Amino acid sequence: QVQLVESGGGLVQAGGSLRLSCAASGSDFSINAMNWYRQAPGDQRDLVAGITRGGSANYADSVKGRFTISRDNAKNAVSLQMNSLKPEDTAVYYCHVDYTMGWGTYDAWGLGTQVTVSS
Fold first, then answer.
1. DSSP character for 89?
2. Most buried of the four, 10, 12, 44, 100, by CB within 10 Å?
């Protein structure tokens, strides 16, 4: 089983920046896609950004040009650089991965990290 640990959330003023990080641990696994989701109170959990093992990234329209996702395959880690933050970016951010272990494919979620952007 893969476990994810997120870090980097916090409180920032509008226009500021934060960097979220997520590291996967376990044994005998290979990570495929790595994603960041977010969920604000009362809202559904939405995809913010995703990146394939080969480095192809995709973004929600609301964060294009402001957020950048990157990954380090050797470290089984993914980061999300968030610039020009807006109050509407306030949410709990979750790391999510799809991975292969043995003959099966699975997914895993982190516990989430709070990002609060003040106006």
1. G
2. 12
pLDDT at 27 over 90: no
* Contact in structure between 94 and 36 (CB atoms under 8 Å): yes
* Half-sphere CA count of 110, side-chain side, radius 13 A: 28
- The whole-angstrom separation of Cα 16 and Cα 53 is 29
Which residue has 């880690």 as its token pair?
77
Q: Is 103 helix (H, G, I), strand (E, B) or coil?
A: coil
Kindly state the helix (H) or strand (E) to which residue 113 belongs, with its residue range.
strand 113-118
Q: What is the pLDDT at residue 28?
A: 87
For residues 108 and 116, give the distance between their C-alpha atoms in angstroms, rounded to a whole number: 24
The amino acid present at 9, given as its one-letter code, is G
pLDDT > 90 fraction of the chain, expressed in percent and rounded: 96
- Sequence letter at residue 95: C
Which CA distances in Å does 48 have to 32, 62, 64, 89? 17, 8, 9, 10
Using alpha carbons, list the distances in angstroms from residue 82 to 105, 112, 115, 119: 30, 16, 10, 16
Average pLDDT over residues 79-104: 97
